[in-house]
Design the sequence.
């Protein structure tokens, strides 16, 4: 007889919280990016281009992310890209040349 596993277990809750925080950080950066762009000298339509590039990159990367998650170890792929995502934000402070 098979045991039924509940969906609201520890792993699911931790994954949910991690995804929630990553998405909150990503979408919270949208109102901050124009301020940052103005600070480094980008104004007007340039800010729109930056925000559009960010949205388009998000849409284009999702199928690639799905492929990687389906064909490789999901845990390692998720942790690798979570680490890269987390390193992106402080890197703008450490390396101002990346803002260009």
Sequence:
């Amino acid at each position: 007889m098979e045991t039924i596993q509940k969906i609201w277990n520890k792993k699911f809750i931790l994954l949910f919280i991690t995804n929630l925080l990553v998405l909150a950080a990503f979408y919270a950066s949208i109102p901050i990016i124009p301020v940052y762009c103005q600070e480094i000298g980008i104004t007007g339509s340039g800010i729109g281009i930056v925000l559009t590039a960010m949205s388009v990159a998000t849409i284009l990367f999702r199928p690639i992310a799905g492929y990687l998650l389906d064909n490789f170890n999901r845990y390692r792929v998720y942790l690798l890209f979570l680490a890269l995502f987390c390193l992106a934000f402080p890197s703008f402070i450490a390396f101002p040349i990346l803002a260009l």
